[in-house]
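Action item from last week, closing it out:
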Amino acid sequence: MAEDILSQSEIDSLLSAISTGEMDAEELRNDKEKKRVRVYDFKRALRFSKDQIRSLARIHENFARLLTTYFSAQLRAYVNISVASVDQLPYEEFIRSIPSMTILNIFSVQPLESRILLEANPNIAYAMLDRVLGGRGESVNKVENLTEIETTLMSKLFERALGNYQEAWGSIMEIEPVLEEFEVNTQFLQMVSPNETVVVVSLNTTIGETSGMLNICIPQVVLEPIVPNLSVHYWMQQKQLKERDPKEYQALTKTVEKTKVEVSAELGNTDISIDEFLHLKKGDTIQLNQPVDKPLQLKVGREDKFLVQPGKVKNKIAVQVLETLEREEKDDEG
């Protein structure tokens, strides 16, 4: 844990206070020892490591970017959404931290168990609704008196936004978010037991001149099956080994198959001096190191790939493939 660094003037003032008796050195020492003791609340058990929390933060940073684009298009207004915090706390504490009357979207995420909650602050929710209905995006909090039309419009707006949540999770696993309930009163909401740990992702949201929070509450039971997938190692591995698109792979294969490569059969080689080379004349014979009764090597590019025997096909010089050269065999020969 990082400690505060005192400036020289603060150090001088501290020493002066101790020397004049304004501060007691023994009292300072006791305070320092007390700070070493950390209070642990067993009711607020930490179920996820910092590494896993960072992975969840990355997923929701991607979701925030997608959501910014989605709401900007839907509302035709300036929208900015960013991750403010990612915390793990008891479900009861989360419920106490949000307004008793607010916008609650409860959705399932098959194939994962349980459900996830997307809570929208009424100021933000009504600013969105006002834009959908052609207004300037002004917020009037009347969450207790939502009409059927307003409820339908608002729930549809958030339901379509869940497609972005599916895309944000794509690097970890395929999920199918489905909006199941739309509530406004937290008293009618009981997703998990009060003491169960949940991860709460808070998103700073600005629509025009109105700002507020979107909170995503993910129960521990939802994340338990995919905890190993939240490590940085898995994240990077999935990024590198992302499954190929079959159509894209097929198109690439056809392109590679049409690529032309140089193929050559080497009759043999030998070494001669420059003087011998300069004095070569018609009728001279150069002895190669290739025995007549041994197969030749066929090169594809610069690599030896096949053993072949020379011959003719329709009065044209040709070779017949006898055997494929394995890379290990070539390495052993080298």
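Closing note: The chain is about 40% helix and 25% strand.
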